[in-house]
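Help! Submission page says 'invalid entity' but I think these are all valid:
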Amino acid sequence: MKWLKLICRLVLAALFIWAAQYKIREPDVFALAIFRFRLLPYSLINISAICLPWIELIAAVLLLIAPKRWREAAAAVIWAMLLVFTVGIGLNLMRGADISCGCFSGSTDDSPISLWNIARNMTLLVVASIAAWPVREVSSRN
Amino acid sequence: MMTWFISALWKQAVRAALIVVVACVVGLSVNTLWGGLSLRGNWQNHAEARAIDEGFPLINTAALLQQVDLGEVQLLDARATESFDAGHIDGALSCPVAQTEVMEELLLSMDPDFSHVVYCAGSDCEESVELAIYLRDFGFSDVKVYTGGWAAWQDELAGRQP
């Protein structure tokens, strides 16, 4: 379990640091990606574009360097974000929106969202669940 | 065991909330210091927002390229004639929304059942949506808005240069 959790943490950290970097460098492009999902009121789009990448980045860094309980909390944050992203993609798939995911790149001409995005996020949700699962420490007695 | 697990989940939720709050504070501070995005933005006037609010489907560069190659659409350039003459998408017709007579003459000569894609300078211009509204009023049934416009098309062409 320990090694499995470590691998899950490393995978999530790498992915979310990668995902956060373009969003921090190009917040206007990420804001447009959020806008295209058409799930938030206009007044919350820019604030989300400013805050979300930093939540991703800080949670990802904590996955690598924080003490155990904080690592699990960071994984829980990522789990919650993945859930929100997956619901967003699902809703837009249902209404047939021809938009790109905006997950790792801001190009408007990326492939449009598809069931592949849902499958990928579901897999990552499992990975995040493993990383976030609180494990009780057994105290050793001499 | 169950009590411990619920307690652990509760503490995890509190820690997670703290991480989110700290990250938001960092993000907002960096944005303020670096002069990034305005907090509210002006999305209600964005070309895409207007197009969607008016009920027009959008088309991106990749899909447009495909349809242009197949000859499935007629492109209409909503910019002023001078801008059109300075450069436009191959095969597009000039349909300047600001020059009502020129525009209406052209619309009357076209097949309203064919697919049409309208565009203007880029994502911040408004002529494409205005032209789309005219087209709908003239009975055109299949009108899409290419919100990337001439700017995105030029980027696409630049990306194809060897």
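Support: the input was valid. A stray whitespace character was the problem, and the output above is from the cleaned input. The helical segments of chain B are 2-33, 47-53, 61-69, 81-86, 100-108, 127-137, 149-160.
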